[in-house]
Amino acid sequence: MAIADFLWVFIWCINHLMLHIDAKTVHGIFSTDVSKRDKGQYITTFCFHGDTPEIRYKLNTSGQGFPKLLFYLDETWQEAKDQTDCTRKTENAKFGHEITHKTGNQTISHFVRPKIWHIVYTDSYTCSESRPLTPLEQPNIIEYELKLLNPDSIGNPTNHFSDEEIGLLGFYQLLTLLYFILACIYTPKLLQTLSKQRSMYLVTRLLTGAMGLQAMGALMMTFHLHNYSKDGIGMPGLQLLAEFLDVLSQFTMLYMLLSLSLGWTLGVVTSKTSHLDALKKRPAVQVVGVLGLLQGLLFLWEQYEDRDHTMYHAHRSIAGVVLVLLRILLAALFAGNLYSTVSTERSTLKRQFYSSFAKSCMLWFLCYPVLVIASWVFATYLRYKFITMGVVFCQSLAVIMLYRLFLARSLYWEVSALSSSLPLRMDKNFGIKLYS
User: Fold this and answer.
1) Which residues pair with 424 in a beta bridge?
2) Are 305 and 318 in contact (CB under 8 A)?
């Protein structure tokens, strides 16, 4: 029943979040009432580049009261958005485009470097307390479709990707291909290992599960971005599901790494579950469960706050900042547990194993907060790509390093005395060889 309730809550959250998704082919309603309330109705943001970036619009009516789209540069918008004087706020726009027909387009000013623009709707009633004067004047309610386009390689405005997202499709395609190649090479032998259900069974299963969730998320992001490149909308449901799978992968890795740091599988195992049952009673493991749940809740909160719905963007919301702090807290908890475990060990082999283990784990834990902090040296439009690609690469590298540590004929093999139960190993060149 608990699982069913959780799935119901998740499906409800996905459906609710999808109502707020803001793609770069944008549909909605220009509203005089919203514009008056907010001193300009915020529509969307987009990073344009080149000589011929363009916005195309299609409306059900041209409206009245001189409807207009205002364009703000990002640095100007950060000051203007909190402006309490409506007239002064609208005057801060870089330029405006008056809507006179049901269809039209607007070319964006050229700059040497890509620029982030914010688009706001206003009309002649926006800053007027007494208008519209009914029944002679009626507030605008205009259905619209906006297409925001960057120039392609030959200069035609056909590219739906903002400069913040250009390159991500190729990255996820390459990542998916690499996962596929690794799966073809290692899956048969991993299945052979898992079928034995011996001492390393649970560790290998959790590690494989985490990597499988990452691979599925990468595949879904590839499908979403491929469709996005064609219509500017993509498959928002798949994107949200990919992000949810990433959260599950994070929690799986978190549980496994912190359990290992507490001595799981390195203690004397009297049965398959006795050591796990003992671990579950330890306060640190209970804290991990609470922090894992908190991470999932922060994910949903961040998605609700940030209408762009990108996977790694801690620099954009309070929830994202809390996620970074949470990851640092988890790293500290891990380091404390590992130090406590190592301090009781007298074996040099175990200490060396824990040293190698700690390097991989700290890479996995700290890559996200470190990359978020490092991203501030880059221009705003580069930060999202830098964080996304960096985190995925570092966490994949950490998982591979852990695979190599656990499956190799190495310190873990020596410490755990599992040579008789290992059907395969990886040599120093990372090639798999069967034991004879």
Assistant:
1) 434
2) yes
Q: What is the pLDDT of residues 381-433, one digit of tens each?
A: 888 889 889 988 898 888 888 877 776 644 455 455 433 343 444 444 444 44
Nearest to 426, CA basis, from 396, 412, 406: 406
* Under 8 Å between Cβ of 49 and 114: yes
Enter the DSSP assignment of 431. -
Handedness of CA 178, 181, 184, 187 (dihedral sign): negative
Tokens (6 digits) for 317: 């919301």
Q: Which amino acid is at 434?
A: L
Read out DSSP for 16-31?
A: HHHTT---SEEEEEEE
pLDDT (tens digit, 9 = 90+) per residue, 29-45?
999 999 999 999 999 99
H-assigned helices in 150-282: 168-196, 201-231, 236-261, 274-280
Rounded Cα distance, 103 and 362, in Å: 54
Angle formed at CA 52 by CA 162 and CA 120, multiple of 5 degrees: 55
- Which amino acid would we find at residue 45? T
Distances (CA, A) of 386 to 252, 290, 302, 371, 373: 24, 30, 19, 8, 11
Maximum alpha-carbon separation in the chain: 92
C-alpha to C-alpha distance for 54 and 69, rounded to whole angstroms: 13
**Which residue do the tokens 């291909």 mark?**
177
Please state, in angstroms and rounded to a whole number, the distance separating the CA atoms of residues 370 and 78.
Answer: 25
Q: Cα angle vertex 1, ends 12, 250, to 5°?
A: 60
DSSP 3-state of 123: coil
